[in-house]
Specification:
This protein is mainly alpha-helical and 190 residues long. 77% of the residues lie in helices and 0% in strands. Helix 4 runs antiparallel to helix 5.
Length: 190
């Protein structure tokens, strides 16, 4: 926060500024999620309420920062983004949705996950988005929509090019994803 406040004007247009803002957003997101984990260990009602409120504040701040980053990247010509800028943009889109999901704002999170799944349908990131699409539908009580999303995910697994799995930072292979979605379909969770 201090760097952004002090040096934003000096580094205006400098690619490092967006990286710093991304790292700031990610720090808020991760610390908010860590506080959510601590909620289960809170012994007193007041402690639980305080942790919950702070977690929501941090996740909300992260979501706001991710949205600003997305808006700034989308204001540029997307074809001119460097590979690292494309990665920041993709992660900002997914992490913004994650923040909303963690704040239990399932409808807006669902919208963002669906947009990300559509944008990145040739990358394993779309499969991660589908996991959350399914989860959002389940939490919203939309079990038929969850099953339909699962069916779309199972089709998408086979449509993603082989080399996309090789380029992905995620360790999951096509086989891992097929197995996971098959298990999910057989689990009777929805």
């Amino acid at each position: 926060e201090e760097w952004v406040a002090r040096y934003a004007e000096i580094f205006d247009g400098d690619p490092r500024q967006l990286r710093v803002r991304f790292l700031l957003a990610d720090s808020y997101r991760q610390s908010g999620m860590a506080l959510n984990v601590e909620l289960d260990q809170a012994k007193f009602t007041g402690e639980h309420e305080q942790l919950f409120k702070e977690a929501m504040n941090r996740l909300s701040r992260a979501q706001e920062l991710y949205r600003n980053i997305i808006d700034e990247y989308e204001g540029r010509q997307l074809a001119l983004l460097s590979p690292i800028e494309e990665l920041y943009l993709r992660h900002a889109r997914l992490y913004e949705a994650d923040c909303l999901y963690e704040m239990q704002q399932y409808k807006p999170a669902l919208k963002l996950y669906e947009e990300a799944a559509g944008m990145y349908q040739e990358a394993p990131s779309a499969l991660s988005a589908y996991v959350q699409i399914i989860n959002c539908h389940v939490f919203l009580g939309q079990h038929n929509e969850a099953r339909a999303a699962l069916a779309r995910a199972q089709i998408l697994v086979d449509q993603i090019p082989d080399d996309a799995f090789g380029r992905s930072v995620s360790p999951e292979t096509r086989t891992d994803w097929r197995r996971y979605f098959e298990w999910l379909g057989e689990s009777e969770l929805f």
